[in-house]
Amino acid sequence: MKGLVYGGPGVRTWTEIPDPVIQEPRDAVIQVDAVTICGTDLHILGGDVPEVPAGRVLGHEAVGTVVETGSGVTGLTAGDRVLASCISACGICRFCREGGYGQCLGGGGWILGHLVDGVQSEYARIPFADLSTYKLPEQVSDEAAVLLADILPTSYEVGVLNGRVQPGDTVVVVGAGPIGLAAVVTARLYSPAHIVVVDKAASRLQAAKMFGADTTVLAGADDPLTTVRALTGGLGADVVMEAVGTPQTFELCTALVRAGGHIANIGVHGKPATLHLEDLWIRNITITTGLVDTCSTPKLLGMLVAGQLDLGHMVTHRFGLDEFTEAYDVFADPIRTGALKVVLSR
Fold first, then answer.
1. Residues of the chain whose pLDDT is less than 50?
2. What are the TM regions of this chain, as residue ranges (predicted)?
3. Would you state the pLDDT for residue 310?
4. Angle between helices 224-231 and 247-256 (to 10 degrees)
5. Alpha carbon of residue 336 to chain centroid
């Protein structure tokens, strides 16, 4: 079969690789029916995640069909259509028992496309399959379901819940990529008074408006601080979410938040960012970071089935599985291509 193999910083190849096999009793093997590319994959290719070795198959977001299960898998059978979560969970360690699956001590956490081969391939091995997959109802399309593998639970848990968005809040999202847009969608569930989105790409700001942003700010042309202060009587935002992963965007978040407000860092950072404690210590600021646990995935799937989450415009580009090279080129250059989420299907 073929898979997308990381060859070191800046190097990726769609090439022949060995078929996956059951290695542990709790494994399953799936046929990958739909898969997407994450901003984290771009960070890996940029050398920001040194734990990923050359030769690793990338990817952690897929929908597939079960073709084989290990002897320890009890909830899945061949032919089941499933969402493969970006987070794997042993289910028995301290963190898993508390719902903190992202910090699993039993061999799980974020391992797909990171510490073990991922799902950007024709078939994939899914460890801890009973707890790391979700059976999908017929009315949910592959394209909609694959967005639940990572971006929606990440934005909801690490952004909205960690940021403690409340009704009437002014919320700022810095970065209008897929994670930032998913943060807009899920923040709206809490009835904030204003959602402001900051980005340097006009096409992504247009998408932010489509997904529910009230105000957009084109970075480099407009001043985010002036906009936010005008909306809040000079106070600053109640909640600011960092959805890019650069020192500059993190430091912008610290300037936009009000005294007593929350900064929820969602972005993946590959370089140090300065924390200006000399300014922040006196302002009662709460800063949270986090890796998604995906404990919210069943709830989000239920809302998707009920029509409470509108994801119809998130996927902008579609490819066949053998078009990974082109798909990466498009996804990595959103200012030129207008790409939000790309989906590759069998």
1. none
2. none
3. 83
4. 30
5. 22
* The two structure tokens encoding residue 135: 């059976």
End-to-end CA distance of the chain: give it in Å, rounded: 13
Give the tens place of pLDDT for each residue, 294-324.
999 999 999 999 999 988 789 999 999 999 9
143: its two tokens = 């394209």
Do residues 288 and 157 touch, judged by C-beta distance below 8 A?
no
Structure tokens at 68: 């084989």
pLDDT, position 183: 98
CB 2 within 8 A of CB 16: yes
Which of 145, 142, 164, 143 is CA-nearest to residue 153? 145
How far CA 118 is from CA of 37, 52, 60, 114, 292, in Å, comes to 11, 11, 6, 7, 17
pLDDT of residue 290: 95
How high is the pLDDT of residue 65? 98
Closest CA to 58 of 67, 66, 71, 49: 49
Q: What is the pTM of this model?
A: 0.95
Domains of the chain: 2-150+293-345 (3.90.180.10), 154-288 (3.40.50.720)
| Residue 99 zone, left/alpha/beta (φ > 0; ψ -120 to 50; rest) | left
CA 76 to chain centre: 25
Quote the pLDDT of residue 312: 78
